[in-house]
Every structure is written in structure tokens, then in C-alpha cells.
């Protein structure tokens, strides 16, 4: 188990969907997240003048989209994007509390963030290819990678999860189901000829490559689960093959019900999964685990 960290969130206007700042004890970084509707107030803050990197988040032609950039004066750069880019709805400004990042630092961070976003395949980028990394000393690279490690904890905590790679390589322990002691669950729907296998690895349900999912979503098209299915199709994690969508790689879900819904093509829950070789549902298995801890 890793060491715990303390994340301090400050909701500037007292609203969960308003401006917020995020800082971690003993970390030099500072993150400001703001909706576009509050961009004028956000750009009046002192950190908006700092050197840093930024992320724009929104939708373009009905699909989620992001843009990652860097600037020595974030305020001026974001103002330009207000005038020229109309698709984004949220801005995330990443700086250091002491404003001690310089041009080479932010060019390196920009390049690495684009690389991570492209690797995760969670959200399309307007950027296209990753920019070239700046030239930093060995110590400089180590410092920026340390900065990035903490940033990768902070961003998902403020609901910016485009860098979280849920694809799982087949070589990891979690994928060798028969040889490991991790619980294996199956979801079968004979009526639709669906069969999916998932491994419970820590806090995640890792659906295995080759699992079959329903070809179409059968309920409210605006459901969050249908949006997730669409993202997986766009990323190539799911692929239409004949009458099904097939998982092309092992993929981790942090929610048991989300994993079931993606497979079933409708809202679902933990009762849809059964421990392999038994008639025991995930919910029953989970209850047993809780009893063991008593």
C-alpha cells in the first residue's frame, strides 16, 4: 500500500461546480480549475499570470475534446482561446505556487501531458501529435517527473481523468486469472449470447480481452454509461464485430455496475456478475468479504 497524501481543495465561490484550487502538502504545484462562465474572475487571480501549462475541456460536434498547452503568461494565452475557441467549457491552469517554472519546464510538462493523454485514449485531443520535449538536465527531468506524479493524483480528484489509463497489459498478474488468487467473475446473458469475464483486482473490475458486449445501447442515449461505451469505442477498446462489441484489450472499471452496464447495453448492477463456477453473485461475494472482516 502506498503512502497517504493530503489534498487540499478550496472552493473559491463555495460552489462544487465553480472555481476551485487544489494543492498537496509539500508539493510545489498549484492547480486552478474554472468553468468558462467564471473565466473573467479566474484570470484576475494572481496565479493566472504565472508560467504554466493548461488544459481546456469541452465538447466538439457532440464528442468530448481537450486541448493541452503551455504559456509563460497563462492569462494572455487563455484570453486568446476565449476569443478563438468556442467549444471548451472548463479550463485547468497548472502552475507552481512560487511561480518558479520556466519555459523548458512547461514545454516538458506539455509534451508529457499530451503523451499521457494519447496513451490513455480517454479523450480526443485537438492538439494532434505530442510536441517535442524540451531539453532538461537529468535533475530537471527527475524534478518534472516527480511534479507530474503528484499532478496525476490531483487531476482525477478534481474530475479530470483523461490521463488515467484503464487499459491493462495482458502480462500483469491481474490478467493471469487461472494462475492467480484473484476472484474471477462472469456475466452471461444467453438471450443475447453475451459472455464477459472480469477479474476483481483491488478496487477495480478488469474486464478481459475477448469479452462480448451488447452491440447497441438499449436505454436512454444520454445515459452516462452510454457515453462511456462511446468513449471506449472511439478509443478502440471496444470494437464492433458481427452482432457484438468485443473488448480488444483488458480494461479496468472502478465501478462494478459500470462494467456490467457496458457489457449489457443497459443499466445494470453487481448482481449481474457471478463468481466463476458458482451461482454466487458479486453482491453475495462482497457481503461475504465484509463478514470475514468482522
Task: Characterize the structure shown.
By secondary structure, the chain is α+β, with helices and mostly antiparallel strands. The chain folds into two domains: 7-157, no CATH class; 168-292, no CATH class. 29% of the residues lie in helices and 28% in strands. It has seven helices and 15 strands. It has helices at residues 39-43, 74-84, 103-120, 138-157, 224-235, 256-264, 282-292; strands at 7-11, 20-24, 29-35, 52-60, 63-71, 88-96, 167-168, 184-189, 194-201, 204-207, 212-214, 238-241, 244-247, 250-253, 274-275. The chain has a six-stranded antiparallel β-sheet. It has a six-stranded antiparallel β-sheet with strand order 7-14-10-9-8-15, with helices on one face. The longest helix has 20 residues, at 138-157. It starts with 6 loop residues before the first strand and ends with a helix. Mean pLDDT is 89; it is low at 171-179.
Which properties best describe this structure?
single chain; 294 residues; alpha+beta; six-stranded antiparallel sheet; 7 helices
Sheet with most strands: strand arrangement: 1-2-3-6-4-5
Per DSSP, what share of the residues sits in E-state strands of 2 or more residues? 25-35%
What is the molecular shape?
elongated
Biggest sheet overview: 6 strands, antiparallel
Q: Rg from C-alpha positions?
A: 21 Å
The count of helical stretches stands at: 7
Helix/strand class: alpha+beta
Order of helices and strands: EEEHEEHEHHEEEEEHEEEHEH
Taking pLDDT < 50 over at least 5 consecutive residues as the criterion, the unreliable ranges are 171-179
The N- and C-terminal alpha carbons lie at a distance of: 21 Å
Oligomer: single chain
Q: Could you tell me the number of beta strands?
A: 15
Number of domains: 2
Helix content: 25-40%
Can you give the mean pLDDT?
89
Amino acid at each position: 500500500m502506498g503512502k497517504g497524501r493530503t489534498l487540499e481543495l478550496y472552493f473559491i465561490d463555495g460552489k462544487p461546480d465553480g472555481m476551485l484550487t487544489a494543492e498537496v502538502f509539500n508539493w510545489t504545484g498549484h492547480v486552478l480549475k474554472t468553468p468558462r462562465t467564471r473565466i473573467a474572475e479566474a484570470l484576475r487571480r494572481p496565479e493566472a499570470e504565472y508560467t504554466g501549462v493548461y488544459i481546456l475541456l469541452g465538447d466538439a460536434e457532440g464528442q468530448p475534446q481537450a486541448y493541452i498547452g503551455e504559456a509563460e503568461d497563462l492569462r494572455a494565452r487563455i484570453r486568446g482561446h476565449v476569443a478563438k475557441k468556442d467549444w471548451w467549457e472548463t479550463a485547468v491552469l497548472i502552475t507552481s505556487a512560487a511561480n518558479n517554472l520556466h519555459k523548458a519546464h512547461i514545454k516538458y510538462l506539455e509534451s508529457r501531458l499530451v503523451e499521457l493523454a494519447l496513451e490513455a485514449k480517454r479523450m480526443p485531443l485537438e492538439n494532434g501529435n505530442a510536441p517535442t520535449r524540451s531539453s532538461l538536465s537529468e535533475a530537471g527531468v527527475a524534478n518534472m517527473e516527480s511534479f507530474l506524479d503528484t499532478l496525476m493524483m490531483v487531476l482525477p480528484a478534481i474530475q479530470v481523468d483523461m490521463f488515467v489509463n484503464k487499459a491493462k497489459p495482458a502480462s500483469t498478474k491481474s490478467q493471469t486469472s487461472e494462475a492467480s488468487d484473484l476472484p474471477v467473475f462472469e456475466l452471461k446473458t444467453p438471450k443475447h449470447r453475451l459472455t464477459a469475464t472480469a477479474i476483481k483486482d483491488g478496487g477495480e473490475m478488469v474486464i478481459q480481452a475477448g469479452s462480448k458486449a451488447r452491440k447497441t445501447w438499449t436505454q436512454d442515449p444520454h445515459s452516462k454509461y452510454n457515453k462511456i461505451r462511446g468513449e471506449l469505442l472511439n478509443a478502440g477498446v471496444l470494437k464492433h464485430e458481427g452482432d457484438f462489441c468485443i473488448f480488444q484489450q483488458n480494461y479496468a472499471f472502478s465501478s462494478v455496475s459500470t462494467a456490467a452496464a457496458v457489457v449489457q447495453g443497459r443499466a445494470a448492477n453487481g448482481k449481474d456478475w457471478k463468481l466463476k463456477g458458482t451461482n454466487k453473485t458479486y453482491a453475495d461475494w462482497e457481503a461475504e468479504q465484509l463478514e470475514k472482516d468482522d
